[in-house]
Specification:
A hairpin with a 4-residue loop joins strand 1 (2-7) and strand 2. This protein has one domain (2-136). The strands form four sheets. Strands 9, 10, 11, 12 and 13 form a five-stranded antiparallel sheet that branches. Strands 3-4-7-8 form a four-stranded antiparallel sheet, with no helix packed on it. 6% of the residues lie in helices and 45% in strands. With 145 residues, the chain is mainly β.
């Protein structure tokens, strides 16, 4: 999937290719956070589905997961300097919750992790929270300033 990006400061256009054709993205300052996905009808074999709660399984079966392969790849693109960081979460039910400075907070199933962005990769993950209710947290964290 190609995104067209306009740099307002320099009045220039650029194209950013995001893996997948039904990927979903959200902007955190200069970081674009994406969940990779590809269209495919009747999809019950996304990774990690067997470990999800029944509510989450239904949510994916009747939502985007029912028509897409979601391999559990999270992508961070820095629109300012062109860096790309890929997080291999390994399960469909994963997403980036917040990027602030060089810190990323992301959810994988029922767990929330924190890691530092180090050039084009993440530093070690640190578990912040693990609870079955965490599956229902979606892009709900806001910066404190």
């Amino acid at each position: 999937m190609s995104l067209f990006i306009h740099d307002l400061k320099n009045h220039k256009w650029a194209t950013l290719d995001i893996p997948g054709n039904v990927s979903r993205s959200r902007l955190f300052g200069m970081w674009l956070a994406s969940i990779s996905g590809n269209y495919r009808a009747g999809n019950e074999d996304n990774p990690g589905r067997e470990d999800e709660s029944k509510q989450t399984q239904r949510s994916y079966a009747f939502g985007v997961g029912g028509s897409a392969t979601i391999p559990g790849k999270l992508i961070l693109d820095n629109l300012d300097d062109g860096r790309r960081v890929t997080i291999d979460a390994g399960v469909e039910d994963s997403e980036i919750l917040l990027v602030e400075g060089a810190v990323v907070i992301f959810r994988v199933g029922d767990s929330i992790f924190r890691a530092n962005i180090e050039e084009k990769k993440l530093g070690p993950r640190r578990l912040l929270l693990q609870d079955p209710r965490v599956e229902q947290i979606h892009w709900a964290i806001a910066a404190t300033h």
